[in-house]
Amino acid sequence: MEQNKAKKVKIIIVAIVVLALLIIGTPVIWYNVMIQPVSTESEKVSVEVKLGTTVDSIAQMLKDSNLIKSKEAFKIYVKLNNLSDFQAGKYELYKNMTLEEIAKSLQSGKVYKDNQLAITFIEGKNIRGIAETIENNTNNTKEDVYETLKDEEYLDSLIEKYWFITDEIKNPNIYYSLEGYLYPDTYFFENEDVKVEEIFKVMLDKMEEVLEKYKEEYQNELAKKQFTMHQILTIASIIETEGIYDSDRKDISSVIYNRLKQRMAIGSDVTTYYAAKIEIGERDLRVSELKSNNPYNTRGPNMEGKLPVGPIASVAEASIEAALNPNDTDYLFFVADKNGKVYFTKTDAQHNAKIDELRANNLWFEF
Predict the structure, then answer these.
(1) Domains of the chain, with CATH numbers?
(2) What residues does 93 pair with on adjacent strands?
(3) Which residues of 275-294 are buried (b: 16+ CB within 10 A; e: fewer)?
(4) Is the dihedral of CA 93, 98, 104, 110 positive or negative?
(5) 185-214 pLDDT per residue, tens
(6) Closest Cα to residue 186, out of 320, 37, 321, 47?
């Protein structure tokens, strides 16, 4: 009798254990299946991650593009691995990539195509960001990048080769000689042994290709306003870092030109961040940084009617076009809310009223 009872208890325990394993194991099995490639074929799919895109939106985009089996599995993977630094940019991904490989590609900007290394450089990144991307994707270090930018002989060869590069890049007050000149895009290289000079060459060649479209407009602009290409790229870099949406760029451009014309300081925080070598969003600016006497800081003393000494970031074509073709407005101020929407005003009173309105509606960006 006791033996039968003990046998029944044992059977019940085994059944409970099996049921528990099934309950626990089924999600694990499902997850392990869902993180595998959607296909064995290396079919290429181009996707774009825009600035400010949420993990949920990225997951949906990948699912809609048939690059992952499950949106939920992607979100679980992101949470389990504490991922938060997906980079904006255009990517070429493949259907035979695992979910892990896709996530890593979106973090590093690195994809392989036909055994070639593809590196994505994002618009709006400064040289420090470009150097980090090069270090993360090749056998070069950030210091290799910085040393190349200091090589006088190398810089002279670029000035001789490219019509849009002049001695202005050798101004001793400039932090990084080719800031703003390296066009952001996805480039393909043979492998990780690619040299910094080779990377810069394809980026400068692409910049030349883009600028050729606007060469006549630039020459007309130069005749009218006497701005050098270095200064046009400087204006474009402020537009790039101040505006998220293309629709705002030409109005932002108009504010810059209007302020220069009226001998006002541009007063752009993004130039102050660059001057202080602080990344935007890293922390708020200190009063001492806002007031610093630095040729990049357009909020500093004696900067009325002046541009920064050079560009502060890489620029997309839309920002170059906006710098050459600003809208005709009376705007002197603009401010962005925490969603990236930009508001333009004509007077200081209107500007301050808009800031108060944004604060009241919980739309003011706070660190």
Answers:
(1) 44-108 (3.30.1490.480), 127-211 (no CATH), 231-360 (no CATH)
(2) 45
(3) bbeeeeeeeebeeebeebeb
(4) negative
(5) 889 898 899 999 999 999 999 999 999 988
(6) 47
